[in-house]
Write a structure and sequence with these properties.
Number of helices: 5
Helix content: 25-40%
Number of strands: 12
Low-confidence stretches: 16-27, 158-165
Strand content: 25-35%
Shape: elongated
Length: 196
């Protein structure tokens, strides 16, 4: 390849990467807020599609280190598979399922507790940052100075779960069928050529 071709390809790749990064940052915001109250929060389309009643569950807006967080409060309804999933019931916002990473420790009532040790009715407070749609739990009671444990959010919708069948088969049987059909076609063509 010539130097001119290499330079052109490199420029095209850089432009593609830059535009992808710009597009990602503009659409990844979970909300925007003008002031520190729930009425000023405008949720993104992705946030509302994932959790339609998110606005009703808002308990307040806080700002830390130049970033806004929406505060939520929920009670544990169910702990599934020793903490692999937490089903939370919001005071005003329906239900949501969180999928904490293994060995996650949360600060509950001033002490660190394992997610597996949570019981039904335990009160949890967590936050969603303006730049990421994920539950964030403070590691210590000092919320302003602590690191946050990030836990992905899943939508909890019983009607959607009942309407769909489990997907237990993969694409391999279809590929095997295609292979057998190809072998059969090849055998038929071979027989046809021999008879001629």
């Amino acid at each position: 390849m010539s130097t001119k071709t290499l330079t052109t390809l490199s420029t095209v790749c850089l432009i593609a990467c830059a535009s992808a990064a710009t597009a990602q940052t503009s659409t990844d915001k979970s909300f925007t807020a003008v002031s520190n109250n729930c009425d000023s929060v405008t949720w993104s389309e992705k946030s509302l599609a994932t959790f339609p009643t998110i606005a009703a569950a808002c308990q307040g807006v806080e700002e830390r280190n130049g970033k806004r967080y929406v505060k939520f409060s929920a009670k544990v309804e169910r702990v599934v598979n020793r903490g692999q999933q937490l089903v939370l019931n919001f005071k005003d916002g329906g239900k949501v399922t969180l999928t904490p990473p293994p060995e996650t420790k949360l600060s509950i009532n001033g002490k660190k507790s394992s997610v597996a040790d949570l019981e039904r009715g335990s009160q949890l407070n967590f936050y969603i940052a303006e730049d990421r749609l994920a539950a964030q739990f403070p590691e210590t009671p000092e919320i302003e100075t602590t690191r946050m444990v990030i836990v992905p959010i899943l939508i909890h919708d019983d009607s959607e779960r009942l309407a769909s069948l489990p997907s237990t088969a993969g694409p391999l049987p279809l590929l095997a069928l295609g292979g057998f059909l190809s072998l059969g076609l090849g055998g038929l063509l071979r027989l046809y050529r021999r008879r001629r």
